[in-house]
Specification:
This protein has 3 domains: 153 residues, Jelly Rolls, CATH 2.60.120; 166 residues, Sandwich (Jelly Rolls); 159 residues. 9% of the residues lie in helices and 55% in strands. It is built from 5 helices and 33 strands. The strands form 7 sheets. Strands 4, 6, 7, 8, 9, 10, 11, 12, 14 and 24 form a 10-stranded antiparallel β-sheet that branches. Strands 2, 3, 16, 22, 25, 27, 28 and 32 form an 8-stranded antiparallel β-sheet that branches. Strands 15, 17, 18, 19 and 23 form a 5-stranded antiparallel β-sheet that branches. Strand 2 and strand 3 form a beta hairpin. The longest helix is centred in the N-terminal third of the chain and has 23 residues. The radius of gyration is 42 Å and the shape is elongated.
Length: 532
């Protein structure tokens, strides 16, 4: 019985204790837990083509990266090398004896007149065919006769649209001068003369008509004169064929805009070793020598300038003539010549980041002297191009190069309702031989900035070996605290934009490889409060 009473008593005490606990639950606070959670919100990999425009680099079989600069530094156009003389002819109707022109009578002349290239200092030019791109003919007439005269003028060998011969007509009042200009664009000039057996010859027509004498004859005394002066104004040649003679042309000093670095936002760029070639692309059917008398790189922003120096300066560089398929069809096989400028200081010229080149160039035409076939030609739209081609196999030093990119942000929809505290950690695993200063921004769908994630952060470069190649990547971590504005930006952002200011590690000429990368992560380190 003792055991039985004890058992009942014990059971009662346990029941009271349970009831007491149950009865007291409404008065006690709810239990809660805090949980730390690390969550990657953003992952991106930056490769070589993200840092450098792919038009600037080539990737070699050994994965090394070479920088390539191929930029035009000069164009030789036809209005410089081949041009027409301004004066066509000066014709004076002056008779040694008295003559009479009856009412309605006329004086008509058809004649050949040469183009005077020697007056322009051009020797040995023998043109056959010319197409005019633009320009005018100036028609000037002085009438010292005693009546108004109808004057007609034409160039029989100037034809437009295959059928329209150049022709103008005007009344010249007595004792007056008239002057007018007429569009000459699009006319094809056959300059082989009336029988197609000569060169540099145009065939002309002049007609003078006595239509205004009131039925009376026009008497012209030996002291009377009628003057016709025909000239070209601003003629630009579109196409020409023949033999252009052996002549020397000097160009400059003049300036050529160099726009290569316009898209390369960099404060300093230095080359350690490079292969430098000057390439000449000849689209003219004329062989010749090209000589660089002077070439100066100019940076107008910093007021720096450097002149080209080396063995190739003031040296003749031969270029063979181009070939064409069909006369006047514009189908050209250009001639290319390459000359090694590696022993010049062109690396230094590029190093000042020029925006302009000043040049003085000499060109000698037809140095081989072959005039037998008269197969020289040119087209206005296909000039002689002079290019600098630079291949930097390895060893570049970059200073303050700006790079930016915008990528999709995957933190949209993150809720901070139960986050008690936390921070973001930006992790960079840098395998480039560059250090970076970095800024990062959250942006909405219109690419407007919602909040700044990071400003002025520093990313250490990879570890360099003895050959200035990255042997081991380096990790950099930057912690960023949470603010109300930043929490809203994390939830609402569509994109994240990063800006990098790139500098070569240790100010060295570093080597770059295609497998150099930088991994970038944004990790959320949040403490969540959980309640049942």
């Amino acid at each position: 019985m003792h055991i039985s009473r004890y058992t009942k008593y014990s059971s009662f005490i346990l029941l009271v204790f349970i009831i007491g606990i149950i009865g007291c639950r409404k008065e006690r606070p709810k239990p809660s837990w805090e949980v730390d959670l690390l969550s990657p919100l953003f992952i991106d990999t930056i490769t070589v083509v993200d840092v450098f425009n792919d038009s600037m680099i080539i990737i070699n079989p050994d994965h090394s990266v070479s920088f390539v600069f191929n930029e035009k530094i000069y164009d030789v156009n036809v209005d410089s090398l081949v041009r027409l003389p301004d004066t066509l002819f000066y014709w004076k109707f002056n008779f040694p004896i008295q003559i009479t022109i009856p009412p309605g009578g006329s004086i008509i002349e058809n004649f050949d007149w040469p183009l005077d290239f020697e007056s322009m200092g051009l020797q040995g030019v023998e043109l056959e065919d010319v197409l005019v791109k633009s320009g005018n003919i100036r028609f000037e007439v002085l009438n010292h006769w005693d009546e108004d005269i109808l004057c007609e003028f034409g160039i029989n060998s100037a034809v437009k649209n295959e059928v329209d011969t150049f022709f103008i007509s005007d009344v010249v009042p007595k004792n007056e001068i008239i002057s007018d200009e007429f569009d000459f664009a699009g006319y094809n000039l056959d300059v082989t003369g009336e029988g197609d057996t000569a060169y540099n010859i145009l065939n002309y027509y002049i007609g003078l008509y006595n239509n205004f004498s009131g039925g009376e004859p026009l008497v012209i005394e030996p002291t009377d004169s009628f003057l016709v002066y025909i000239s070209f104004v601003d003629i630009v040649v579109d196409y020409g064929k023949g033999y252009f003679g052996q002549n020397t042309f000097n160009f400059g000093p003049d300036y050529y805009d160099f726009e290569f670095f316009d898209e390369f936002d960099v404060g300093g760029f230095s080359i350690e070793n490079a292969t430098v070639n000057l390439q000449i692309e000849n689209n003219y059917g004329v062989d010749g020598n090209v000589k660089i008398i002077d070439l100066e790189a100019i940076n107008n922003e910093t007021n720096e300038s450097i002149h080209l120096q080396g063995d190739m300066v003031d040296s003749n560089m031969f270029i063979d003539k181009a070939m064409q398929q069909g006369s006047g069809l514009g189908i050209i096989e250009p001639s290319l010549a390459t000359y090694d400028f590696s022993n010049t200081n062109f690396n230094d010229l590029i190093g000042i980041l020029p925006d302009e080149f000043a040049y003085t160039i000499e060109i000698q035409s037809n140095v081989l002297g072959d005039s037998t076939n008269h197969d020289n030609f040119f087209y206005y739209d296909y000039p002689i191009g002079i290019y600098m081609d630079i291949v930097v196999d390895q060893g570049v030093m970059i200073e303050d190069m700006f790079v930016q990119s915008t990528v999709v942000w995957n933190g949209e929809g993150v809720s901070f309702d139960n986050v008690s505290e936390g921070e973001l950690t930006v992790v960079f695993q840098n395998g480039f031989p560059f250090s970076y200063n970095v800024n990062m921004y959250f942006e909405d769908e219109n690419f407007d900035v919602l909040d700044t994630l990071l400003y002025g952060g520093f990313i250490a470069s990879g570890i360099l070996d003895d050959e200035f190649r990255v042997s081991e990547p380096v990790e950099s971590k930057i912690s960023v605290g949470l603010t109300a504005e930043r929490e809203d930006a994390i939830s609402e952002a569509k994109y994240i934009r990063y800006e990098l200011m790139v500098n070569s590690a240790d100010n060295e000429h570093v080597k770059i490889f295609s497998d150099d990368i930088m991994e970038m992560k944004i990790i959320g380190d949040f403490k969540f409060k959980i309640e049942p």
